[in-house]
Amino acid sequence: MTIPSNGLHHVTLITRRIQANVDFYVGFLGLRLVKRTAGFEDAAQLHLFYGDRTGRPGSLITFLAWEDGGQGRVGRGAPSEIALAIAPEAIGAWMTRALRFQIPFTGPESEFGEPVLRLKDPDGVIVKLTGTQALSDRNAPWSQPIDEEDPVGALTPVADADAVQGLRAATLLTERPEETAAFFNRHFGLVELAREGSVRRLAFPRGDAIDIRDAAGFWEAAPGTGTIDHIALRAADNRAVAALRLALAAEEAGPTPVHDRRYFTSLYVREPGGSLVEFATDAPGMTVDEPEATLGTRLFVPGHEDRIPPLETTVALPQFALPGEPRRIARDLPFIHRLQAPEEEDGTTLFLLHGSGANELSLLPLGRKAAPGALLIALRGRALEEGSPRFYRRITPFRFDQADVRAEADAFAAFITDSVAAYGVDLDHAAFLGYSNGANMIAATLFLHPGLIRRAVLLRAMNPLEEPPAADLAGTSVLMLSGSDDAYAAHAPALEEALRASGAEVEARRIAAGHLLTEEDTRQAGLWLAGKSPRIGSESESRFSEDVGAKTIG
């Protein structure tokens, strides 16, 4: 059964660095950021939509942000390239623009009788600028002014005559090209327009296309950054989506989940070659929750569209700036890390070091609650254990690789020093908060690099150094929180005594919890960081003598 499609709806890709991605697609290509959301499947994942001024289907390129995520592999069973339509006479202007922005390119070369410039985006995805008249009727929104000075957010806007007109084509790699082509013809009415070598072009009625490349003998695609997740075709309405689902079920085409994506309703299916294909409605569109003039300026979290989204979700999303906006550029330092700035900074910085099995995102909600005005710098440990990051290798749960502890503490100290120049950190107004393995790394650094860390919050910590060196920690303040039901709690007093013996001022408390963190950890850490004692009663020191009630949230 054929359910005609009116063309490509969008293409969705995966990026490793969202700031570089925004700079390329908005700053260089001149697309408009028309929507920013948390992921529909994973609310902890940022999802950006680029398009023309109105965010029409057929102009949309969307990105899932896997910040500092693993590299994927382009191969059979997935899309490999996207082509964007421009006016044929704009080719020269884009070559000049690419040189100005220092974007490498090849061409122009001819593909299916059209001049093509081949570029690579910051993740290495091939983006082709194709000179064509096939989509000339889609140019209108670029010439319609809207009520903002710079609708695309670019420092050097693209002239309307040269602007990207929409998606020209997407290339799919398949080892079953005949079956793949038949699938698109049978279900969507696409017909073969031409062939060049191992590529056949299937055309939609309005001119855009899907290019099917014979990839027999290629390696299989692997998901990850720098890859295209799926392509989406346009559906007339929800009835068309329902009809396609019935047709696919009749031929046992595999799973066909349907989802309400707020801006469109989508069906997903894999074509015979393995590529994921989405069938998405045109309506209600990008303006369903934002007026045209302010598209892309507000963050939407699915399920929280009409109220303030939860901090636990938003604080974990990577931040970015549009071209021309103030920004803090992430630097290439010894540890992968995430910067998270509040709306109003108070001049303080809080470094966050996660526990075993977590990553740099895990402590961001706690850090933001405990230090509302601080710049958060959350690190990812470099030692892997069963695929999860740690800050050093361990031999048993209570014995650690001493050489690795010392080497990683040296690297951490270098990171701290480099952050002063990279991010303008004032170490006199910086604090360090670590949990479990991360807290132990901070403790090791206190002894191995005395004076570098002046304020530290250690949650569920023990001393990872079997023979800590003599260190002068006068002027260093430490808050230690241990869990009364934590197996590691028995090792915490030894760390407390070692810190005190070195001259550190230590406040140590035991709360009613296990190894997992609690709201009480957040509360006490916040009070201590704000200069308010978290002590209960009038005792000046507890030495783990007092239990504080807490509700475990881990």
TrEMBL record:
State the UniProt keywords alphabetically. Dioxygenase, Oxidoreductase
InterPro entries, per the entry: AB_hydrolase_fold, Extradiol_RC_dioxygenase, Glyas_Bleomycin-R_OHBP_Dase, Glyas_Fos-R_dOase_dom, VOC_core
An example Pfam family from this entry, by short name, is Glyoxalase
Q: Where is the composition biased (Basic and acidic residues)?
A: 538-554
Q: Does the keyword Zinc apply?
A: no
- What molecular function terms (GO) are annotated for this protein? dioxygenase activity
Superkingdom is Bacteria
Chain positions covered by the region annotation Disordered: 534-554
Domain VOC, by residue range, is 7-132, 166-282
Q: Which PANTHER family match?
A: RING-CLEAVING DIOXYGENASE MHQE-RELATED
* The protein's name: Ring-cleaving dioxygenase
